[in-house]
Design a protein that fits this description.
The structure is a single chain. 38% of the residues lie in helices and 21% in strands. It has helices at 14-22, 64-69, 73-86, 111-122, 142-154, 171-176, 186-191, 196-211, 224-232, 252-258; strands at 26-35, 41-52, 56-58, 96-100, 129-133, 158-164, 181-184, 215-218, 237-239, 247-248. An eight-stranded mixed β-barrel has the order 1-2-4-5-6-7-8-9, surrounded by four helices. The protein binds ligand C2E and calcium ion (2 copies).
Length: 261
């Protein structure tokens, strides 16, 4: 798609990322998240894109890890979130937003106040915000993450565990952090219609979500067949190309109005 270009031939280095931030070339895109049993739009996940003057929209795999390695991921998030929150007047209540925070940012105790400041600037209520983290951010850093999460929860943000199933899928982390949302990794969803093992894993994760009172979100839903199976397994939410690609803020009103589901 026109919104999913990436560098094939050009090497991206740290200076390019620095320049992208300085020149304000980073932009949020918004991907629909849908409630499976009603078919209603529930909100959007904010995904970073680099609007490169020559190469078009560049995907995060080309620049997120560089930003992490060079201590710029905090600044990158601020740039993305500022624009995301400023565009939320077009996001009617009760639609929610979820944002990605990288493991490197979970060392920064000022993360919650950064987020609340940006949300306030854009007039976005924090009770409609989910903060997505991955298990890898919890390893060797659990105590600090607990502090950060406590602040975020006190601000009324929800916490989501992203890419569940790919890491350790540790019950210890599910117990230690008061998550609200469990996001089932795309790799299981993609194979669940033809692999019995994947289907069983997805069913088990959804069951775990029910037991722990977590909202389950299936990632990478591309077909009706997958959506129907997830609905039968009683998964709460779906996200994927079936419902929409990540698109720039200007397309939010259209996505909200023309949501065919
Ligand atoms: P993620 O958080 O797991 O985000 C979901 C990824 O799956 C997105 O890739 C999205 O475009 C893609 N996706 C959604 N639906 C489908 C589908 O039906 N099929 C397939 N094949 N893919 C689908 P994207 O935007 O390239 O982002 C990749 C990763 O980069 C994200 O994975 C996240 O870990 C990271 N990322 C993106 N934006 C940010 C950001 O602002 N901050 C941080 N720290 N990380 C970010
Ligand atoms: Ca995510
Ligand atoms: Ca994910």
């Amino acid at each position: 798609s026109q919104f999913a270009l990436k560098f094939e031939t050009m090497h991206v280095d740290f200076a390019d990322v620095r320049r992208a931030i300085d020149n304000d070339e980073l932009e949020p895109c918004f991907q629909p998240v849908v409630e499976l049993h009603t078919g209603l739009l529930a909100g959007f996940e904010v995904l970073a894109r680099w609007k490169h003057p020559l190469h078009g929209l560049v995907l995060p795999e080309n620049f997120i890890s560089l930003a992490e390695e060079n201590g710029m991921i905090g600044l990158l998030m601020q740039r993305i979130l500022r624009k995301a929150f400023l565009s939320t007047p077009v996001l009617p209540a009760p639609l929610e937003l979820s944002v990605n925070v990288s493991p490197a940012q979970l060392h920064d105790l000022s993360l919650p106040s950064q987020i609340s400041k940006l949300a306030e600037e854009g007039g976005f209520p924090l009770e409609r915000l989910s903060v997505e983290i991955t298990e890898s951010g919890l390893i060797n850093n659990l105590e600090r993450v607990k502090k950060i999460v406590r602040k975020l929860k006190n601000m009324d943000c929800k916490m989501a565990l992203d890419d569940f199933g790919t890491g350790y899928s540790s019950l210890r982390y599910l117990q230690a952090i008061p998550f609200d949302v469990l996001k089932i990794d795309r790799s299981f969803v993609i194979s669940m219609t033809d692999k019995r093992e994947s289907r069983k894993i997805v069913a088990a994760i959804i069951g775990l979500g029910h037991s722990l009172d977590l909202i389950t979100v299936a990632e990478g839903v591309e077909t009706e067949e997958q959506a129907e199976m997830l609905l039968r397994l009683d998964c709460k939410m779906g996200q994927g190309w079936l419902y929409g690609h990540p698109l720039p803020a200007a397309r939010i009103p259209q996505m909200v109005e023309t949501a065919p589901w």
